Amino acid sequence: xxxxxxxxxxxxxxxxxxxxxxxxxxxxxxxxxxxxxxxxxxxxxxxxxxxxxxxxxxxxxxxxxxxxxxxxxxxxxxxxxxxxxxxxxxxxxxxxxxxxxxxxxxxxxxxxxxxxxxxxxxxxxxxxxxxxxxxxxxxxxxxxxxxxxxxxxxxxxxxxxxxxxxxxxxxxxxxxxxxxxxxxxxxxxxxxxxxxxxxxxxxxxxxxxxxxxxxxxxxxxxxxxxxxxxxxxxxxxxxxxxxxxxxxxxxxxxxxxxxxxxxxxxxxxxxxxxxxxxxxxxxxxxxxxxxxxxxxxxxxxxxxxxxxxxxxxxxxxxxxxxxxxxxxxxxxxxxxxxxxxxxxxxxxxxx
Length: 351
Fold this sequence. Notes:
The chain is α/β, with parallel strands linked by helices. The chain has ten helices and twelve strands. The protein has helices at residues 48-70, 89-106, 115-127, 163-174, 182-190, 211-227, 242-268, 283-295, 305-308, 312-323, and strands at 2-7, 12-19, 29-37, 79-85, 109-114, 133-137, 142-148, 151-157, 203-204, 207-208, 272-276, 299-302. The longest helix is centred in the last third of the chain and has 27 residues, at 242-268.
């Protein structure tokens, strides 16, 4: 069985083609996984209308490219899978319209997919993690998740902005490039930082808050820009730099994520952690999580940017898993929604 997946919940438009065995739970085959990113100017975020226009501009050529790369035709596709939510309204609408068009044009079934579940299932498939605690971290979501009774249960989450949004917005404060991604550029600057500055550490039970940290680091950034070489570390006498700010922000927010993930592991008795979502590419987060897991006798699983960052193949994979259980989205219900909780999805393909 072959599925075509369409992802466009934020600034990346992705098309993926995946093949599952007709029967059984054998390995899947990734036939194509391509995407194009809308990159806004430094110091700016991406507006929904501009992002949606980007997706519409690239839609047809990426679908054609994916089919060509996969070596198939529309006739070979069994279902069209698309991101139903969560995400930004206008980009989601563009993808939903494309999915409906292809469904009618090719006479194929539609499958609406939860974006978060797509990340989880692709991560499980690529890494081989069996029943991990999942840390889902991206520009729009921050959740600690574990599976139980055919649902992905949310144990903790961000109470305000997502951790990826916190990093992205600080990149705008520093006016650094959004290419290839603001969070990636923050990570590279953080590697050069040496001084850990005091920032709010806000963990409330199993939940986190990042807006106060962002407000605090913005104040420190203004001080660095104003004082230039005048602000020095009290101990070493060295100048506090923009790289120190990035280092301090990363260390603080990642420590918070490690804490709530460890608490979830203890609660469910798991020794595995699976990190998914765009922020999951961050090597420092993987390192910190690995240290914690090793102390518990466990292990960490993560993927590279092909599967961590939003992509069409994860939508194709999760959609095909659901389609094989008999699930399909009627045309009249092929809408999209900005709010679609991970635990709303009935995971019939898992026992």
